[in-house]
Structure formats: C-alpha cells, structure tokens
Design brief:
6-stranded mixed β-sheet; globular; binds cobalamin
C-alpha cells in the first residue's frame, strides 16, 4: 500500500492535487494506493498516522512546494519516520527537485525524485519490491538508508 500526500497548499480555493494524481494514474491497476489531501484535513498528521496504521502502508509519497507546504511537510515527515521507521518515504515536487541533498541529509526522507516523477516513482517502487538496484532510476536520489 502506498499513501500519497498533498500537504496543505491553500487556505481557500483548493486546487486539484495534480502532482499526486499524476503518480496515482500510473499506480492504478499495479499497486494499491490512498490519496490524502491536506487541504481537507484538520489534523493531517493524525489522519496519516491512522491511514498508515490501518492500511499497513509501506510507502509514503509526498509532494512538496516551497512555502507553507514545506513547513507542514517537514514536521509531519519527521514524526511519521519516528513512528514508522520501516516506512519508505519519498519526496517529490519543486522543493526536493531543487534541494535534493538537503532533503536527503535531513535523515527522515529515504528517496527524492527530481523533476517529472510518475515513471520514476513507479520504477522505484518496482525496484524496492524486487530488492533490485535503484541506481539507474532517472531523477532518483537516495539517502544512505534508501540504499
Ligand atoms: C497549481 C500550483 C499551485 C497551487 C497548489 C498546488 C498544489 N499542490 O495543491 C497554489 C496556487 C496553491 C500554489 C501555491 C504556491 N506556489 Co505553486 N504552482 C502551481 C503550478 C501552477 C502547477 C503545479 C501543478 O499542479 N503541476 C502539475 C503537476 C502534474 O506537475 P508537478 O507539480 O510538477 O508534479 C510533477 C513533478 O514535480 C513530480 N512530483 C511532484 N510531486 C511529487 C511527489 C512525489 C512523491 C514524486 C515521486 C514526484 C512528484 O512528478 C509530477 C508528475 O510528473 C506550478 C507551476 C507549474 N506550471 O508547474 C506552481 C509552482 C510549483 N508554485 C510555486 C510557488 C513558488 C508557489 C508559492 C510558494 C507561491 C507563493 N509565493 O505563495 C505557493 C506555495 C503554496 C504552499 N502552500 O506551499 C513555484 C515553485 C518555484 C520553485 N522554485 O520551487 C511554481 C513552479 C511556479 C513558479 N514558476 O514560480 N501553487
């Protein structure tokens, strides 16, 4: 099970979370997934904790733009990594694409996918599931733990 997260991006006039919808489109029929949109969650951390627990999720994909989305993504990712140390956490989107090293050095993100990510995300999940190398995946950067 894969949980895809859109941290809160706007207080009003919410947009469709295109970034994670594009990932979900490629997972469809291949892996089960759940989408959690922070724009509609009063307590995103609590919702994610419950969802990961109930679905026994192995992967968490988070889209992160600079600004408020980043400010919510940092403490939530940190907390979820503490609660679920075996959960594989993947960050993608504009912030990690530009600052992959900083994100990976944080110690709570296992993988960063830089740039257009739907194909690479699927390849990454396939590789982890098969225990295969992740080195060849386009745009994929790994933390020491992700290796
Ligand atoms: C829609 C949009 C918004 C929406 C909300 C988006 C949302 N996520 O809900 C609103 C209007 C709220 C918004 C706000 C802001 N935005 Co904005 N936004 C966009 C916009 C126009 C489109 C994003 C989009 O949906 N693209 C379509 C999807 C399919 O593409 P994508 O997001 O790039 O996703 C692909 C990859 O990035 C990657 N990917 C993305 N997420 C993930 C996650 C994982 C796990 C993986 C593996 C891969 C992955 O794979 C996806 C598919 O290929 C872009 C500009 C653009 N044309 O891209 C700016 C853009 C992302 N925004 C930007 C900025 C700066 C902001 C604000 C900080 C502006 C401000 N000053 O307030 C705020 C911050 C909001 C916040 N709370 O953090 C900048 C980022 C620049 C940068 N250098 O990082 C951009 C690039 C605009 C620009 N050119 O300046 N934004």
């Amino acid at each position: 099970m894969i949980v895809l997260v859109n941290p809160r991006s706007a207080k009003w006039k919410h947009r469709l979370p295109m970034s994670i919808l594009s990932l979900a489109a490629l997972l469809e029929g291949r892996y089960s997934y759940e989408i959690v949109d922070g724009n509609f969650e009063a307590d995103l951390e609590a919702t994610l904790t419950r969802t990961i627990h109930e679905t026994n999720a192995q992967y968490l994909g988070i889209t992160v733009m600079p600004g408020p989305q980043l400010m919510q993504a940092i403490p939530i990712t940190q907390r979820l990594k503490e609660l679920f140390p075996r959960l594989k956490i993947v960050w993608g989107g504009y912030f990690p694409s530009l600052h992959a090293n900083v994100v990976l050095q944080s110690g709570f993100v296992d993988f960063v996918i830089r740039g257009q990510g739907e194909l690479s995300f699927l390849e990454l999940i396939d590789a982890v599931e098969r225990g295969a190398s992740r080195d060849h995946i386009p745009g994929c950067r790994l933390s020491a733990k992700g290796r």
